[in-house]
Write a structure and sequence with these properties.
Elements (H helix, E strand, L loop, with lengths): L1 H15 L3 E4 L5 E8 L2 E8 L2 E8 L2 E3 L9 E15 L9 E14 L4 E10 L2 E8 L7 E7 L2 E3 L5 E4 L12 E4 L3 H4 L17 E3 L2 E4 L5 E7 L7 E6 L4 E6 L8 E4 L2 E2 L2 E7 L2 H5 L3 H4 L15 E6 L1 H4 L33 H13 L4 E4 L29 H10 L3 E7 L4 H17 L4 E5 L14 H16 L3 E5 L14 E4 L17 H4 L36 H10 L4 E3 L4 H4 L3 H9 L4 E10 L3 E8 L5 E7 L4 E6 L9 E8 L12 E8 L4 E6 L4 E8 L4 H4 L2 E2 L1
Parallel strand pairs: 22-23, 22-28, 23-24, 24-25, 25-26, 26-27, 34-37
Antiparallel strand pairs: 1-2, 2-3, 3-4, 5-10, 6-7, 7-8, 8-9, 9-20, 9-21, 10-19, 11-18, 12-13, 12-15, 14-17, 15-16, 16-21, 17-18, 29-30, 30-31, 31-36, 32-35, 33-34, 33-36
Helix pairs in contact: 6-7, 8-9, 11-13
The structure holds 1-deoxynojirimycin (NOJ) and calcium ion (CA).
The site of 1-deoxynojirimycin has 8 residues, from loops.
């Protein structure tokens, strides 16, 4: 017995001898690091409650010894960091970056190689990364696999989409971790080119909730020159492990020291709002790379877009089966009569934008080549500078300028990425010459010519290359189908939007689950803004295209709420002007809502069920509230105690009517005006698939208050 105790004690001392502990600034988040038989192991606890159980770290290399075991600790350093910085645009005008850092310098005796593990412990979570300093025995290397583990303390509820190297355009599944395997097949949308990596791999940002009410989120930050990480679950032991995106040869990342991996992040809290309000992802990115960022401005826009997505109009000018760049003289072809990006029609959008105070009009399908854009013959590629004969760039630019509106450029690369890079300078110069200052780019289809995946290192580098080059031309970028964001917009704030998730377009391709927008802020939006393209007022898609029976799974009131709940400095009013003209009273909210904020509060939140945000407009006294609901009827109860107690405001509440329902009566909304102050409270019923939006505008004079009820 004595012997056993002695052995246990020896094992205990051996395994914990090097244990390093580091707490967050408020002492509540605690990291423990140690080497277990030469293998790096970390764990994380919040208030003593396990968030990450002991989890191993390491990398497998190709044609070289692995960086997984045989380590000893050469040195450890702890530091503290505290700064407050101002984002160019954002959910709040200042952001505090406050953490304690542990740097563990590891030495692998057998190879004489050095690897550093850097941990940053924040009050709301942890970031860590691998660093490879310059050294003689580790110069170039190829990562075969990263084995970062995230051991869960139980069978949590997860809000997940399948791991996939090429797309994130999935609906979410809510299930226990143990149920992922059985549900994987059902998580796929038919005909949507989705290819799950495995039966238990999921994408980040992965949101979870424990049975005892803790919220945990796993993601990454500052993804640069490396491939995107997925998480594979060992569902016997509830341990996630990183799965990187391979390149065309199956390699995960090509490295040259000195270099590092992206940060792996764990955000955790007792309230769902702790996850929504966390700034860990941004804080783990480098400060703004631009000395002068005056040219970067939030954009509210309309676009020649939804009419093509619904199938009412076309991107292409002709019905030719395919064309070849430079070989088709479009002026000699027969127009198909449904090409939306024509000068006359674009002017109508410009008029609408100008009348309602929008900054820009996106025009898709303006350039030659759309007959073949989906890569039917892949030997055709766009050149990004040649308009169709019915799209007069100069005339439209002059017209837009006269109305104080910008045109927004569109570059669909159709996945032909080298072709895009070859044309990039001319394409951006064309934009500058024609006064475009923002571009929506897109990467639909397989990546050619190299057969890379959308989320591999080569593509990750491409997206950043296109973004930085856009910076040289003072151009803002909104990239669709690009790798999911990881906070790079802190460094390059001209990345004003990304898609990288299932957006509103899918409402015209069969529909999104009504709880979709109650999950995205906990997942996709943690890395940066999404061009979700809200504002659909006609849920019956067949009104635009009799051959399309899709139904938009929302009420109109909820569409308004999305401008507040789906944070983005780039917001589209996606529906058609003719439809908005029928509901100008509700449209008023889209006109009024801010897109840049001083302050953000989470009033109510539960992933998969509902989210209510209140945000104060940047440099203004006005507030906006948005509430998005899942498929259940729910009552929201909020207090206006966030308002300035000395001020009276006029609140306009855009709510679901009593009988509203996303399926049967989506257009039923009610608009009410009240006088409110910081003591006001609201109890508001939200329809199934519904929500509400409120504009809270500081009252300028007493007269306007007289006729209004108090809330
Ligand atoms: C997919 C994008 O998400 C969508 O917004 C765009 O209209 C099409 N690609 C065409 O580029
Ligand atoms: Ca898309």
């Amino acid at each position: 017995m004595k012997q056993i105790i002695l052995i246990l004690l020896a094992v205990f001392l051996f395994t914990t001898a090097f244990a390093e502990e580091l707490s967050s600034p408020n002492g509540k988040m605690k990291l423990t690091f140690n080497l277990e038989n030469g293998v790096p192991v970390y764990q994380l606890a919040l208030d003593g409650h396990p968030i990450i159980k002991p989890s191993k770290l390491g990398l497998e290399l190709k044609d070289a010894d692995d960086l997984m075991t045989g380590f000893s600790i050469e040195n450890t350093l702890t530091t503290t960091f505290d700064e407050t910085w101002k984002p160019v645009w954002g959910e709040s005008s200042t952001i505090r970056n406050h953490y304690n850092e542990l740097e563990v310098i590891l030495k692998q005796a057998s190879t004489q190689r050095e690897m550093i593990l850097r941990f940053r412990v924040f009050d709301d979570g942890l970031g860590f990364r691998y660093e490879f300093p310059e050294q003689n025995n580790l110069i170039y290397f190829v990562v075969k696999a990263e084995h970062s583990q995230f051991a869960m303390a139980g069978d949590h509820t997860a809000y997940w989409i399948p791991g996939d190297y090429d797309t994130q355009e999935y609906d979410y599944t809510t299930s226990k971790l143990s149920e992922i395997r059985a549900l994987m097949e059902r998580a796929i949308t038919p005909n949507a080119s989705q290819t799950p990596i495995s039966e238990t791999a999921v994408q980040t940002a992965l949101m979870m909730k424990t049975d005892d009410g803790y919220y945990i989120n796993l993601h990454e930050a500052a993804l640069k020159d490396y491939s995107c990480m997925h998480l594979e679950l060992d569902d016997k032991n509830m341990i996630f492990e990183s799965v990187l995106t391979p390149d065309a040869l199956g390699n995960m990342a090509y490295m040259q020291a000195p270099c590092s991996t992206p940060w792996r992040t764990i955000i955790a809290g007792k309230n769902a709002g702790d996850i929504l309000l966390s700034n860990i992802t941004l804080n783990l990115n480098e400060p703004c790379a631009y000395e002068n960022a005056d040219w970067i401005k939030p954009v509210k826009y309309v676009g020649v877009w939804w009419e093509m997505i619904t199938g009412k109009s076309t991107w292409s000018y002709t019905n030719l089966p395919s064309v070849k760049l430079g070989e088709t003289d479009y002026s000699k072809t027969t127009p198909n009569g449904t090409h939306a990006a024509n000068t006359k029609h674009v002017k109508e959008y410009i008029d609408f934008a100008a009348k309602h105070g929008f900054d820009a009009v996106l025009v898709e399908g303006w350039n030659e080549g759309w007959e073949d854009w989906f890569g039917k013959s892949k030997d055709y590629v766009f050149d990004f500078v040649t308009p169709y004969p019915d799209f007069d760039v100069d005339e439209l630019q002059a017209y837009a300028k006269s109305k104080n509106v910008k045109l927004m450029m569109h570059h669909e690369t159709s996945g032909s990425v080298r072709n895009y890079e070859r044309h990039l300078d001319t394409a951006y110069q064309f934009m500058v010459d024609h006064s475009y200052n923002s571009v929506k780019s897109g990467y639909v289809g397989d990546i050619i010519p190299r057969g890379e995946y959308h989320y591999g290192q080569w593509m990750v580098n491409h997206y950043l290359y296109a973004l930085k080059k856009a910076g040289d031309y003072k151009i803002m970028v909104n990239a669709h189908e690009a790798v999911r964001p990881t906070g790079l917009c802190r460094t390059y704030p001209n990345l004003i939007g990304n898609e990288s998730a299932r957006g509103t377009e899918y409402e015209a391709f069969g529909g999104n689950h009504p709880d979709h927008t109650t999950i995205l802020p906990f997942t996709r939006l943690l890395g940066g803004p999404m061009d979700y393209t809200p504002g659909i007022f006609e849920p019956d898609v067949s009104q635009y295209n009799p051959n399309n029976n899709s139904h938009v799974n929302t009420t109109i009131a909820r569409q308004l709420a999305l401008y507040v709940t789906m944070y983005s400095p780039l917001q589209m009013a996606a529906d058609l002007p003719e439809t908005y003209n029928k509901h100008l009273d509700a449209f008023q909210f889209i006109e009024d809502v801010a897109i840049d904020w001083d302050k953000t509060l989470v009033l109510e939140a539960e992933p998969g069920d509902y989210i209510t945000y209140a945000r104060k407009a940047k440099n203004s006294d006005n507030w906006f509230v948005g509430r998005t609901n899942d498929e259940e009827k729910r009552t929201s109860e909020i207090s206006f105690d966030f308002l300035d107690p000395d001020v009276k405001y006029i609140a306009t509440v855009y709510a679901d009517a009593k009988d509203a329902n996303y399926l049967t009566n989506p257009k039923a909304y009610e608009i009410s005006k009240y006088v409110v102050n910081s003591k006001s409270k609201l109890k508001q019923v939200c329809a199934p698939g519904g929500g509400y939006a409120i504009s809270i505008i500081k009252a300028e004079n007493k007269d306007e208050l007289k006729s209004l009820k108090k809330l």
